[in-house]
Write a structure and sequence with these properties.
Number of helices: 6
Order of helices and strands: HHEHEEEEEHEEEEEHH
Shape: globular
Radius of gyration: 21 Å
Length: 260
């Protein structure tokens, strides 16, 4: 069953982002590879970092793949008295190991990276978080190199990526930074009610851009993962919608969003 929304499904952000992030990168690679062969290869890269426990709500913190310590059960909070001293069992904030994937387009002959494609995760947009610092450090490395950078922000929540000046109004963004045109970049912005755009994937100078339909990738991801069977469309959205958007989404009356 297809998504009930014409473009990005806002309920995936809070409920299925782990799986969506991984599946989207996989499908995007499948869609790009035939158009780039035989001159280029698309590969999955990974970065691993440790995120210290913070003060963000658990719903924000659980949206990235994490390897955590074995759970020995919840803290009881019970008090006991030993030799006149009051004791209690509590929990300590534990660091979380994050593993994030992104795509790179490599020149087949030299295996050098030509373009990096990043789909942002909630940890990349959390104010003062380790994930954001880690991502921005990697971003600076890309921007200081000869590698093109494509950034996809399919998340309504969190802090937007820094740009000089103001981003155009939008709920979602794609930013294309061509190495030969920096510091200028191309910004694609769209709203919750819009279909996802088709965007260029820059390659080596002299080669035409590859054009990828983000809407087509999204539709394949949604149907392949069967999110219609798992997403709870009567749940509250975070960030919350304004009154007009809430009336449009209207999750309690139907699973199919109104026509735009």
């Amino acid at each position: 069953m297809p998504s009930p929304y014409p473009g990005m499904d806002p309920f995936l952000e809070m409920q299925e982002w782990d799986d969506f992030h991984t599946t989207f990168n996989t499908v995007l690679r499948e869609c790009l590879s035939p158009a780039l062969e035989p001159d280029y290869l698309v590969r999955v890269e990974r970065r691993v970092y440790v995120e210290r426990a913070g003060t963000e709500p658990e719903t924000m913190r659980r949206a990235d793949i994490a390897v955590v310590a074995v759970d020995s059960g919840p803290a009881t909070g019970r008090l006991s008295q030993v030799s006149g001293t009051m004791t209690a069992e509590c929990e300590l904030p534990m660091p979380i190991e994050r593993r994030e994937t992104y795509l790179v387009v490599r020149d087949r002959e030299t295996m050098q990276v030509v373009t990096a494609i990043e789909l942002l995760s909630p940890s990349n947009k959390r104010r003062n978080g380790d994930g954001r610092r880690e991502y921005l450090t990697k971003r600076e490395e890309f921007l200081s190199s000869s590698i093109h950078l494509v950034e996809l922000d399919f998340l309504r929540g969190g802090i937007r990526l820094p740009v000089v000046g103001a981003l155009p109004p939008g709920d979602y963004y794609a930013i294309i930074s061509r190495a030969n045109r920096r510091p200028r970049c191309e910004v694609y912005a769209w709203m919750l009610r819009d279909r996802l755009p088709s965007i260029p994937i820059p390659l080596k100078l002299g080669d035409d851009d590859a054009i990828v339909s983000l809407q087509g990738v999204f539709e394949t991801v949604y149907q392949r993962a069967r999110y219609d069977l798992s997403v709870k469309y009567d749940a509250a959205l975070d960030p919350p919608l304004n009154e007009s958007e809430q009336q449009w989404v209207n999750p309690k009356s139907t699973r199919r969003a109104p026509d735009v």
